[in-house]
Write a structure and sequence with these properties.
This protein is α+β, with helices and mostly antiparallel strands. About 35% of the residues lie in helices and about 25% in strands. The chain binds adenosine-5'-diphosphate and magnesium ion.
């Protein structure tokens, strides 16, 4: 397969039906968290997938996602539970569809100076890593497509200069590891001006797609080794790839920050039946995801109450990305199988709630006043030169 072509820039909300219309207010443009649901196709491990084993149905015309009733309680539920999301990517959807629906609008916003976040939520095996981090040729996930899009856009741009650097963090058992420098120590801190950041994080500059892919590969291989050492699969840790994009045009600088987040599996402890060290893990994962859920709940309620960001490392790390100041798209990943229906409903409910989170994203812009003054002074001198020359002649 050839290189991935990034498609042209989309309309801000193509194909989506926002509850709140965008309007410019004092605190920035008002919007809300976008939620895309992706149902993966059946895979080999879904035993006996066939007639009667599907948990969902989708009415594309009306954009309605229905829960199908279980074989034994078909009579009871005459009214199937239904959901409406910004987009549903049904089982036959391609990686490019996920990119178009969830990735590209956010990456475009980041290239214009916003903070943006694409986050995958769902139970283990539902397709989070496939959607976000898959590396196989022709089936690349959002991360790799984002790199292509960023560097294609930068190459085609004449007026603006882009600088890209990448950091990659993992949260496991409520401790944070720098995947680009696993031996170092990192700590989540807060700056009154720029918000939460990872102190000590390694930021690696990238000027080409190849650079970025190398950095991603390095982080992914560290994620794998860190996991085996701690006797854990990647499904038990959260990973956040953070891409800083600085856009300079003249004396103005825009600082965009992109968070691509692959969350740990959202399944309940009971079902996975883990014990001992596995149980501690499951509890820590549940705790951070529960805190995430509570933050979303508070944000969605639109009350003055402060979300409990500080109660877990995950929510602290993501507070800039999910706290209502960023262009955020959540991808709810679901398995298609009846045996997973309870988990699927949990994920869909989480997504439905997140659609109520109001976002007032602002462009992070700064002006280099030193250069601006110098440039204005030189303009003034240029204008005054003929006058001075005339004066001299007189
Ligand atoms: P998660 O990260 O949520 O635990 P994975 O992304 O690892 O789940 O997906 C589980 C399995 O399903 C993998 O083998 C993956 O390749 C496959 N899979 C997931 N989504 C899709 C898809 N949309 N098309 C084809 N295979 C998929
Ligand atoms: Mg995964």
């Amino acid at each position: 397969t050839g290189p991935i072509r990034s498609r042209s820039r989309p309309q801000a909300s193509a194909g989506m039906a926002p509850k709140r219309s965008s309007s410019v207010k004092g605190g920035g443009e008002e919007d809300r968290v976008r939620v895309v649901v992706r149902i993966r196709p059946p895979v080999r491990k879904d035993e006996k997938f066939g007639e009667g084993s599907e948990s969902l149905q989708y009415d594309k015309e009306r954009n309605l996602l229905f829960l199908l009733a279980k074989e034994d309680d078909k009579e009871k539920s005459a009214d199937p539970k239904q959901f409406v999301f910004d987009r549903v990517l049904w089982k036959d959807s391609q990686q490019a569809d996920a990119w178009d629906a969830a990735g590209m609008p956010v990456v475009n916003a980041v290239m214009q100076g916003y903070t943006g976040c694409v986050m995958c939520y769902g139970q283990t095996g539902a397709g989070k890593s496939f959607t976000l981090a898959n590396e196989s040729a022709g089936q690349e996930g959002v991360m790799i497509r984002a790199f292509h899009h960023i560097f294609d856009t930068a190459a085609a741009e004449r007026e603006l200069k882009y600088e890209v650097s990448i950091s990659y963090q993992q949260i496991y058992l409520d401790s944070i590891t720098d995947l680009l420098n696993p031996g170092g120590t990192v700590e989540i801190r807060e700056d009154p001006k720029s918000g939460v950041y990872v102190d000590g994080a390694k930021w690696m500059p990238a000027t080409t797609v190849q650079d970025a892919l190398k950095i991603l590969g390095k982080g992914n291989s560290n994620r794998a080794t860190a996991s085996t050492k701690m006797n854990s699969a990647s499904s038990r840790s959260h990973a956040a790839l953070i891409v800083r994009i600085t856009t300079t045009g003249g004396v103005r600088t825009l600082s965009g920050m992109l968070y691509l987040v692959d969350l740990a599996g959202s399944e309940r402890i009971k079902k996975s039946g883990v014990e001992g060290a596995g149980l501690d893990e499951a509890k820590a994962i549940n705790q951070s995801l529960t805190t995430l859920g509570r933050c979303i709940e508070v944000l969605a309620s639109n009350k003055k109450e402060k979300p409990p960001f500080r109660e877990s490392k995950l929510t602290r790390l993501l507070s800039n990305a999910i706290g209502g100041g960023a262009k955020t798209t959540l991808i709810i990943c679901c398995a298609p199988t009846m045996t997973d229906q309870q988990e699927t409903v949990g994920s869909l409910d989480f997504g439905q709630q997140a659609m109520n989170v109001v976002v007032r994203a602002k462009v992070n812009a700064s002006t280099d006043y030193g250069s601006l003054t110098a440039s204005l002074l030189s303009q003034r001198d240029m204008k005054q030169k003929p006058i001075r020359e005339m004066e001299a002649r007189v």
